[in-house]
Write a structure and sequence with these properties.
Blueprint (H helix, E strand, L loop, with lengths): L3 E12 L3 H12 L4 E4 L13 E2 L1 H9 L3 H5 L4 E3 L1 E6 L2 E7 L10 E3 L2 H13 L4 E4 L2 E9 L2 E9 L5 E11 L6 H6 L3 E4 L3 E9 L8 E6 L2 E7 L3 E9 L3 H6 L2 H11 L17 E3 L3 E4 L3 E2 L2 E3 L14 H22 L4 H34 L11 H8 L5 H8 L19
Amino acid sequence: MITMTDLGATGCVVIGGGPAGMVLGLLLARAGVPVTVLEKHGDFLRDFRGDTVHPSTLTLLDELGLGEEFAKVPQRRVDRLRVQLADGIVPIGDLRHLPGGHQHIALVPQWDFLDLLAAAGKREPGFELRMNTEVTGLIRENGKVVGVRYRDRETGTGGELRAGLTVACDGRNSIARAAAGLRTREFGVPMDVWWFRLPRRDGDPAGGIGRFTAGHAAVLIDRGEYFQTAYLIRKGSDAQVRAEGVQAFRERISALIPWLADRVHTVESLEEVKLLDVRLNRLRRWHTDGLLCIGDAAHAMSPVFGVGINLAVQDAVAAARLLATPLRRGRVRPADLARVQRRRWLPTAMIQGLQRFVHKRLLGRVLGGQAKPGTGVPKPIALLQRFPVLQRIPAYVVGIGPLPEHAPTFARRPTTHG
């Protein structure tokens, strides 16, 4: 039994302290809206979260006056997207020609990014961040969501927090979304992902790199001293592949990327290999009266292109811009929430459409063993090599994307650059 110790109120309660939740909380606080962000963990230190901060988000940080602070965070920078083929490493996307002030992707541990946003939020008088606070349900009155019930994970005590608006930013397994009965449209995916670390050495390729061959695929993310490595396995095959043992796993990685063979032994147990259950879905309706879902709570993204974080951040920016005035007035209507969905539906559907294409035409065939090695460079990649100017297209899609959002006037601070 949870002892109820706190009955509070705020203008907006945000469930989840990930990128979408922290950006939304910061922007609404700068708009003069009292906002409380509830994060169930005690810190942001979780491995194997997405670490890519794309040019669209870097531009947003400049607009918020946080560019200089972000530039001080240890990071790796990627200005080209590359894949490794049998004949070597080739570029498939060139970010160096992107418009704006940033022609690169920053590879930054997500906890550093979230700590920066949290520090900025705490400088605003209307911002509150509660860690170790797990939402357990919604409060409803006359069919409207009017707040949340929560539990303090340190003390076990519970409370209620009422709000003019509740925003679910609690990810693909959203408690709030389930409690509201909002239904997703599921798109099949061919893979899950194993996440693990491998040491990086001097002379290794820098930045990010992908490797695809018959039956196998992997992506390496350069974190300086090590590679955060994503190894793709067929959907639902985790138990089967684990049963083969750690030595078989090492042999798989060595065969796929031979220059890693001298370090695969550093993975001593498959307990060090974490499973990401890949899902691709989208809510049919992102809201109900008093509740809005954004980010993965509204649309779980595939790891393809690594754009999930940046889409979630752009959802948050659009929500802040469209809802700040209704929140200040103390009345957020369902029509206001519907405007957010209309604004963000098209870019979400476009990116998910591209991800589904890659799933079907590339990853499904690769993981199913249908792609035959030794048959030459795939036609799209060959085209990008023959006409390098075309590499600007995937760079724009990944780096900026359709319908990028910019900070509303009320949230802007003097621009700084690193």
